[in-house]
Amino acid sequence: MPRSTLRRAIAVASTLALGATMLVTGGTPATASLPGSGSVLTSSNGQNSIKFHGDPSRTSLSSSDTITGASWSPDGSQAVYLDQQGAIHRLRYDDGSARYVDMSWPDPGELHRSPSWWGDSRIVLAYQYSASTPWRVASVSPGGLQGGLAWISPHDGKHYLNPDGGPGSLVVFQRQDDNGSGQPSGQPAVMVYDGSLELGQLRLVDDNGSNPSISPDGSRVAFVRAGRIVVSDLRGENEVPVTPEGVQYDHPTWSPDGSTLAFSRVTPTAARPVYTASADGSAPPVAVPGLDGVPAYQPHRKEQVVRLSGANRFATAAAVSQSHWPNGALAVVLARSDTYADALGGAALAVAKHGPLLLTPPTGLEVTTRAEIQRVLAPGRTVYLLGSPGALSTTVENQVRAMGYDVQRLAGKDRFATSVEIAKAIDPNPDAMFLATGMNYPDALTAGAAAGSYFYDFDSGFTAVVLLTQDEVIPPSVRAYLDATPMNLRMLYGIGNPGVTAAYTYEPNSPYVRGYGGANRYETAYQVASILFEGQRYTGFATGTNWPDALTGGALMGTLGGPLMLTPGTDTNLSTHAVSLLKETSGSVHTGLVFGSPAVVSPAQQTQIGTWLSGPLGSTSVTNPTDGSYSAR
């Protein structure tokens, strides 16, 4: 989910208060074992390539880095690995010449080890501050502002090494005592962490085992004991020896279907040939030709692209609403359909009030919108009208009241004052304020999805609002709202070059100001998506040449915790910035959402979205689902 620097600091502080812990380990661990299909097996051994077995399209994937401990994302689209300088990177499966997004860069004295994908989005790794401190295990989301580490292992003076991320919230890793000099010592133990539990997340699996790997269904763990690969359940019971005595093996990892284990054989030389065996121990190990080093299966999983569209802007907004709220919402935000001025802060409001954003002409309630309000909202709930009676007439207000709804009108004397009233309805003292020009729509649409995404975790308590500027100038009504909140209690984000200038003019040299503006609307959207979001599972796409679909779609993206990318929708190709974002985030993003009909965002662009967010299996396309299934993935 997207997090500001302030949000990260608070989140990390909360984790510390709960007594959780953090990051990495020495040695090379087992790699992630995640569910999926396929039997492609890879290996990495500190050289400049990943070797493949079982993939008819390739035998290797090269990089300018050395690659150690490569581990695959759930869809097989990205490998995460450790390079020669101890930094953690990601690599697209189909483009070994490109390296995307530094996951971590160790400071002097720090060590990073053992990156492994965890569930759908996060990465677990081991971390050591210095040679005299214990190894720890933590998770980090790919992309976004750096520094958002969530501690997993306890800060108890013991060493926690070799994490292996599994499905859902499960992680296994190795625990050892300290030898008094900051080094792991003594008999290792296998531990399992369950992030879904408030208490008792960490428990012992086996008191004599190292380098564990959790099965794709989360029911079993493979580990090393005296050189043998052993499988047990998560209670350490029902043990099955997979390899014979007398031969040393290491680095176990599970096939995506859980039937097979791959591991490396320890030899007197540097060679570590890869073997496989049945996970139930029914057959002896078999060598895999051409593979050497640490093995990792590449899971294959289809991703999806969802198009939400209608014959016009009203029908598209209704399709967005029906797709995510099949069983109803808590509120509806209603904006005028003929101009954007009063509506630009509405996406964040819709997320905060737990409902969709719909459109209607100023003079009367449009028929499709009327029907969708009645479908999605129970009588007695609230419909928020954006703008004065000059924007949405009293006729519209009276029609909504006659349908049995409470009406709250949020309006000021102009678009700037209206954005303030919308912000106040969200929170008089928000944690973040996004400044974007109200003299045009693209930057504010991008900001709306980002501000709304602060509510992605509805229990977080974080709030964010969008405030409109008169290009580089902050109007008096907006300035008064800003003045009412001390700068050290919130972050101020300028979105787009006018918003950036306004933000830094208002608070020059402040550590609580950030600005993200590109050479055009597409680059600005990319900057916001790549810097303010991390580990998102959804990315939205709307035309950058008009505003209605991006407005209603942005409200949904805020609800899903994903960014909204703008693209020249009628062109044959996506914007280069949209392609870059998809390449960088494909390991975590499993669903792309397209807002608007094929006449607005071309089928060719939809195809490209599916290509770049997916792994080897590609993607499926869905149009106007009404069961909420895509948002339950």
UniProtKB/TrEMBL annotation:
Annotated signal sequence range: 1-32
Highest taxon of the lineage: Bacteria
Region described as Disordered: spans on this chain: 45-70, 612-633
SUPFAM superfamilies in UniProt: DPP6 N-terminal domain-like
Keyword check for Transmembrane: no
Composition bias, Polar residues: 57-70
Protein name, as recorded: WD40-like Beta Propeller Repeat
UniProt keyword annotations, A-Z: Signal
